[in-house]
Amino acid sequence: MTSNSFGARGQLSVDGKTYEIHRIDRIEGANRLPYSLKILLENLLRNEDGHLVTADHITALAGWDAKSEANSEIQYTPARVLMQDFTGVPCVVDLVAMRDAMTELGGDPRKINPLIPAELVIDHSVIADVFARPDAFGVNAELEFERNQERYQLLRWGQQSFDDFLVVPPDTGICHQVNLEYLARVVFTREGPRGLQAYPDTLVGTDSHTPMVNGLGVLGWGVGGIEAEAAMLGQPMSMLIPQVVGLKLSGDLPEGTTATDLVLTVAELLRKVRVVGKFVDFFGPGVGNVPLATRATLGNMSPEYGSTASIFPIDDETLNYLRLTGREEHQIQLVEAYAREQGLWHDPDHVPEYSQIVELDLSTVTPSIAGPKRPQDRIPLAAASQIIHRLLAGLSQDDAVAGGLDSAGEESFPASDPVAISTRIPRDDPPRIHDHDEDPDLDDWPSNPAELIVGGQQASIDNGAVVIAAITSCTNTSNPSVMIGAALLAKNAVERGLASKPWVKTTLAPGSRVVTDYYERSGLTPYLEKLGFNLVGYGCTTCIGNSGPLIPEVSSAVAQNDLTVASVLSSNRNFEGRIHAEVQMNFLASPPLVIAYALAGTMHTDMVNDPLGHDPQGQPVFLRDIWPTTAEIKKVVDASLEASMFTKGYADVYHGDENWRGMSIPDGDQFAWQSESTYIQRPPYFDDMPVDPAPLTDIKDARVLAYLGDSVTTDHISPAGVIKSDSPAGQYLQGLGVAPADFNSYGSRRGNHNVMIRGTFANVRLRNKLVAGVEGGVTRHLPDGERHSIFDAASAYAAEGVPLIVLAGSDYGSGSSRDWAAKGTTLLGVKAVLAVSYERIHRSNLIGMGVLPLQFLDGESAESHGLTGEESYSIVGIAGADPLPREVTVSVDDGEHRRKISALVRIDTPAEEAYFIHGGILPYVLRQLLSS
C-alpha cells in the first residue's frame, strides 16, 4: 500500500481524460533541483510505501547537497526494462533457471515473472558476412537465423510464457533506435490502485548506451543484466543520489560540422571534467538549437564520457519529434501538459542548482574523428593525417595528438583547455604542449607496402590502410541529417567519378527500417550501393565486433606483412580488439566521413588538403567538393521523411519474418532444456543453493589469476566478438562437433556458461602482467609458474581448492554493461578484485555475482606497493562482520615476508551488502520471493 506523506497526489486532465499524478511542487525547494533529480523525486513520491521507499528518502532528495560526493541512498523503481539479445538471452536463461530453483525449493515457479514491462530487441546477432551485394541483407539474415535458432526459440518461449515480456524479432532494428522511435512513452500511463496514473517514463537497460533515450527527456541508464532481472522481478534499485553536472549550451553548430563532431567534442570535454557516476543535465539557451536526433546521439555516448545519464529537458523539439515518429496526438498532448504541470518543461532562463557547471559554445565545434583505441580521444580532422603518422611512428596517443595539433595550428584545436567551468570549480590543467622540434619528421613512419590483387584490380596497402568502412550503430543511424548527409556525399562522389578503394569492406547497417525507407524515397540508395554501401542488416554489426571477415586477399596481406590497418565507423566504441581481431586502429567518424575514408582508402589522406581521388578528366576531387551543405541536407530530409514512415514501419514490429513465426514453441511454466544445445544451457548459479545464505568467511591464501593495468574494459574481460578456433572456447565447441565456421560470436553464446567461462579474459589484446610481453588470455599457474590459458589455470586452481583474485589499475571494467564480465569472473573462482578504481556498472555487477570489489587507498596501487602478482593473498575482516567493514586488511605473502595492505570495501549501499551476503542479487531475490 502506498503512502502520501507529503500530500503529493493530484489529478491532471488532458483531452477529457483524467490521470492521477504525484505533484513535484508539493516538496519545498523542488524547483531548485535539476531536471533529472525532479524525475527521481516523483519516482519516490509515487512509490512511497513506508518500507522500501520512505519519507526520509524523499526528504533526503529534496535536501540534496549538490557539492557532496556522498549523498543518501534511495530506492529507484523504473517503469520498464529494455534489453538487447546479447544481454537479454542470459537474463531470460537466468529467469528460467530461477523457475527451476523455485520449484526445487518447494515454491511456485510462476512467482518468477516480470512485474514491470520488459522489452527485448534482437539486434546484436546479425554479422556482416556478405557485403557490397544486392542480396547481402537477405543472405546475412538467413545466416543469422541458422546460427541463432536455439536462442530465438528461448526468446519466443519467454514471450509466450512470461507476462509483460515483449520481443522485437531479428532484422527489425537496433534496440536504442527502436526505443527512441517507438517504445519510449516520455510520459508513462498504467493502472494504479486508485485508477489510471501518469508519470515520467523511466527505464533501465541491459546495454550501457540506454541513455540514448535521454535525448527525449526519458531518464534511463545501463545496468548489468542481473540488476535488470531483479528490477523485472519487482525489486527497487538501490542507488546513491548522484551529483549532477550542468552542461550549458550556447550558440549554433557551424557549417560543415555534424552531430558526430559535437558528441566527440562533448565526450572529450566531459572525460576531462570527470563525470563518472554522475548525471549530466543539458541546459541553457543553446538547448533549443539542438535537434532531437542530435540530443539522442549525445545521450547515447554517455558511457564514453562516463556519466550515468545525460539528459535533455522536454520542450517543443520533443513534441515535434514525437509527431514526426507517429506517436498518437493524445499522448503528445499528455506529454506537454504533464511536463508543464510538473515543472519539467524547459525554461532557458532558469538555472537549477548543479554540482558543477561546464559550458560549451556550439560554434567552437570542428570536424573530428576519435581513436584509435578510445572514443574520448578526439582528433581534429585537419590534424588527423599528421597524428596518425606519429601514432604509426610509435608515439603515445597524448604525444601524437599534441604534436599533430601544434602542426595543424591553433585554430584547429586550442592548445589550452577549451572548456569554461563555473568559477566555483577550479579549472583542469591544460593539456601538455609539445614543441614541434621535439617531434619526429612527419614522414618517419614505418612503411611496408604489400601488393595484392582485389576484385581483379592491382592494389597496394600499407600501414594505416582503411580496410573497414562501416555506417553502423544507432549512435548515428538514428540521425536523418547525418545519414542523408552521407548519402548526398555518396551521390556527389559518384557523379564526380569516384569509387571506394577495392580493399575496403564497406557496409551499411542502420538501426531501423525507416532509414532505408527515406533513402528509397529520396532516390539516394543507388549512389550508396555504387560505392559498396549496400544494406547488410538492421543491427549493430561492426559496432560490436560483428564485422565479419575481411576481404580474403586483404586479410592475407595484413597477416603476411604484419600491417597495422584501420577501420572507420560511425559508432560509439572503438576499444582495442573490439571491431576486428586483425584491425588494430579503429576511428569513430560521422557517416559522411566514413564514406570519405572509403574513397581515400587510407588514414594518411589529409582530408583538408589532399584529394580523395580524380575525376575522369584527371582533375583532383577534394572532400570540400563533395561535402553537402546544411541547406541541401535539410531540403532532402524535409522532402523524404514523414510520420507515416514510422507508423507503417512499426505497425508489425512484433510480427517477424517466416523463420521467426515458423518456430515450434512448447508450452509449460518451465523451459525444456536441451542437453545437446551449444547455445542454451542451464547455468549453475542456483545448484545446491540452501534456503538460507551461508555465513561469510575471509579469503585465505588466494592466488592472482590476472594482474592487469589501467582502462581494462569489459571487452577485455568478456569479449563479444569472434571465437578463435585455438581458444579454450573454440576447442570446447569443436569437441562438441561445432565447426569453426559455425562458432558465431561470444555474444551470441551468452546463454551457454560453458562457452562464456572459457571466453572470460580471452580478449586477444589482453595484457596480463604475470606474462609480460604476451597478449591474450594467458597466465601463469603459481607457485610452479607454468604458462596456461586463463581458463585452464583457473580449472587447476579449482581442483586444488585455491581461491583467486584479480589485481587491476584504474577504471577497471569500463565499457559496455556486460554482466558476463562478472559472471565469468565468479565462475572462474575469483573471490575478489583489488583495483585502483572501477567503472560504475562493472563494480555493481561484481557484487551482483558475489565477487568482493576492493579498492586501493587514494594514491596507492599494486605498483606503489611493489606487488608482482606472484604472492599469495589473504583478505581478513569479512568473517562475522555485521555490517561489512569499510576497510579490510589484505595480507600479502611472497614466501619470505608477509605484509599488510589496507583496502576499501566498495560495497556502497545496504542493498549491495544484502546482495553480497546472499552470494549475489539473484539468490537474494529468489529467497525473498520464496519466503513471500
Protein topology:
Elements (H helix, E strand, L loop, with lengths): L8 E6 L2 E6 L12 H13 L7 H8 L10 E4 L3 E5 H20 L13 E4 L14 H26 L3 E4 L6 H9 L3 E6 L2 E6 L1 E4 L13 E4 L2 H8 L4 E4 L3 E7 L8 H15 L5 E5 L8 H9 L1 H4 L3 E3 L4 H9 L4 H13 L14 E6 L6 E3 L7 E3 L3 H9 L4 H12 L11 E2 L28 E5 L2 E5 L4 E6 L2 H4 L2 H16 L9 E4 L4 H10 L2 H6 L21 H10 L4 E4 L15 E4 L2 H10 L12 E2 L5 E2 L1 H4 L3 H11 L2 H7 L8 H4 L37 E9 L6 H4 L10 H8 L17 H7 L18 E4 L4 E4 H11 L3 E4 L12 H8 L2 E6 L4 H9 L3 E5 L15 E5 L10 E7 L4 E8 L4 H8 L3 H11 L1
Parallel strand pairs: 4-5, 4-9, 5-6, 9-10, 12-13, 12-15, 13-14, 21-22, 21-23, 23-24, 27-30, 30-31, 31-32
Antiparallel strand pairs: 1-2, 3-11, 7-8, 15-18, 16-17, 19-20, 25-26, 27-33, 28-29, 32-35, 33-34, 34-35
Helix pairs in contact: 1-2, 3-6, 7-8, 10-11, 12-13, 15-19, 15-21, 16-21, 25-26, 26-28, 28-29, 30-31
Sheet with the most strands: spatial strand order: 27-30-31-32-35-34-33
Shape descriptor:
globular
Terminal CA distance:
16 Å
**How many helical elements?**
31
Helix content bin:
25-40%
The structure class reads alpha/beta
* Mean model confidence by pLDDT: 90
Architecture overview:
The chain has a 7-stranded mixed beta barrel. A 5-stranded parallel beta sheet has the order 6-5-4-9-10, sandwiched between helices. Helix 30 (910-917) packs across helix 31. Residues 403-438 have low confidence and may be disordered. The longest helix has 26 residues, at 136-161. It is of the alpha/beta class and 932 residues long. It has 31 helices and 35 strands. 33% of the residues lie in helices and 18% in strands. A hairpin with a 4-residue loop joins strand 34 (887-893) and strand 35.
